[in-house]
Amino acid sequence: MADNDSGVTDRTEWERFHDLEAPTYDLQEYTRNAIAEVDFLIEALNLSAGESILDVACGTGRHSVELARRGYAVTGIDISAGMLAQAEAKARAAKVSVELIRANACSFCAPKQFDAAICLCEGAFGLLSSTDDPIEQPLSILRNISHSLKPGAKSLFTVLNGLRFIRSHAQADVEQQRFNPATMTAVSEVPPSDGLPPMRLVERGFIPTELDLLFRLAGMSVLNMWGGTAGNWGRRTVELDEMEIMILAENTAK
Ligand SMILES: C[S@@+](CC[C@H](N)C(=O)[O-])C[C@H]1O[C@@H](n2cnc3c(N)ncnc32)[C@H](O)[C@@H]1O
Predict the structure, then answer these.
(1) Predicted model pTM
(2) Ligand 1 atom with minimal separation from the 19 CA
(3) Can you list the domains of the chain with their CATH numbers?
(4) Ligand 1 contact, 128 CB (< 6 A)
(5) What confidence tens digit (pLDDT) does each residue in 67-98 have?
(6) How far is CA 227 from CA 35, 57, 164, 205, 240, in A?
(7) How many angstroms is it from 171 CA to the middle of ligand 1?
């Protein structure tokens, strides 16, 4: 595993959380559909045999390794060494090669250009550290992905549905600072475990119109927005209360 230390300075709350979660991540219900998700994304991204794919915040490599098994040239980046160690073991068990790089998606820009990119199950998108700006964080990730893609290349994202954030929080959540409607951020407190201190995790929801704008600002155009909840991906209109939105985009930058 390569370590691209651009942007990986002090461990962020999300990095610590994912390091802790890494050994059991693939036991979560929502991770069980990776094979079907890979079928879906090969078709949606219109991938041709052997093409190169950048998996941003690849986690335990459940998509990266399956794509490599099907003959694609995959590079996965992630901020969590624990998640990358799982991905490395998974690639070894599957006897495939995946380039794995430890990097922060907010600053990582690939030295080569890829045929396609994926950033799934949020990836890094909207998982904010305490110092991240809620507009600049997702925008920087999109800009870096756009720069890492060939002109016209497609990308597929699943991101937290802000419509659900709004509908699932009450005024009391705003008053008790669990939800901030100005930044579209929600806070969850993770109790101390394994001798580690409690963590305060901040995640950001997105509404479709702002996603369209963020993608345009980053040099990508949105081709489709569909329901993207893990376990229920579909070419359908986003449902108000579903967990995630899927975005299929095309790189317009030269
Ligand atoms: C919910 S997991 C999703 C992993 C994988 N894409 C999947 O679909 O299973 C989120 C991942 O984002 C990574 N991550 C969080 N913030 C990041 C950042 N700023 N840069 C790179 N990776 C990040 C975490 O380490 C974790 O592996």
Answers:
(1) 0.95
(2) 25
(3) 2-161+206-251 (3.40.50.150)
(4) no
(5) 999 999 999 999 999 999 999 999 999 999 99
(6) 18, 20, 12, 14, 10
(7) 30
